[in-house]
## 1
Amino acid sequence: MEEQVLKNLRRKQFVLQNLLAIATLTVIGILCSFIESIKTFCLLGGAICLSYIIVGVLNRKRGEFMGLIVPSLKPLYAYEHEKLGIEYSKLRIRQLIILIILAIYMFYLGIITPHNHLLIYGRTAFYYFLPSALMSFVVSNISFYKRVKKVDESNAEELNGYANEILINGIMVGILFGVILIGLAIVLLVFNVGKIF
């Protein structure tokens, strides 16, 4: 693929992915503004994971979701598929497995949590969703930049083991993400920040 064509497609992909992410986070944020119990919050999280699993399965059967919405991006996904080879399939399968585990875990928490368990300070879930949504948005953009740079600037031999690299990086980012969120929750509890707002 010509360099200029690739740059134009990557630019379009970046804009569309961010618009889709903002739209998705906005819808989830609106839903979270009505949620006050941990049970409902967990069930919503499970439903979101399930929707991503459905999209992932459709991706494997019909091609990339973004390519179906915006046909002009199909050559870009074909280019990625060809360049990554077997790593492309490995990556998609591992993403699906992680989403399935997360969905099961969130639904399990939602089922075993009593109805009367309210979120901290009786706030809606939006109060806790907003910081994680902003962090997710920033992290996903950094991840997108690194992935594009790696795929576009590497040859087939250098991309060998790419799926393992992504998995390890994802686990590390997930652990860091979890530590930061737990730290924020502890700060809220210890310093009683919730009563300030």
Note: The chain has one domain: 3-195.
## 2
Amino acid sequence: MEWVDYNYEAYLSLKQIDEIEDTKGAFQESDKKYKRLLDNSKYIEDEHNRILAILEESLKKINSYEKLILEAQQEKNSNRSLSKFDSDINKLFEKVRYFEGNQIAEEIDQQYY
């Protein structure tokens, strides 16, 4: 009877070892997945930060260009001779637009309209 009891205990121990090995294998697989996800997350975070830096730099440039455009627009609006010249040019193009068949007028029209 002791021999049967000993073999039964040995069987339970071996079964427990197999279960521990299975759990260990599953844990190792989960650990690999977690490490891959962590690596991917780090890559995504780095790319996100790189894109944000590019966007911030672009925004600075856009703000700088906007300021220059506003300054140029104010300068143009404050200079009456430029405003009159601009108005005269627009009137001229309005007249030229209707000169159908005139090759030079059509080329100008294509360039500006």
Note: The first helix runs from residue 2 to 78.
## 3
Amino acid sequence: MGLDLKLKLVLPALLLGSVLAFAPGWILKLPSDTGLIGELKWFGSYISVPGGFVGLIASGAQIDDINFVVVDLTNFVFYSALAYVLLGVWEQRRTRARSGLARVQRSKS
């Protein structure tokens, strides 16, 4: 991957990482617990798990003392890195598919 491609992937990865890090806090504040809102709350709590583990370790395994800034920052870093890797893999596969399609078109003509 070239430097230009790496820089092209950073902004979307950071954006997706920030949405996935901070959305659970907004989702969990919704007023209802039934139907679609209830399902969104379950999904939001599952998204917070990686940061929750790090927050629990940072608090000395005291569940009442978890620092949610640590949880949010951990989720931001985790999901940004995950999005960066997945976007990079997707871009490489797309580039290979395009080059393979170009070779097939050249061989047909």
Note: Residues 3-108 form one domain.
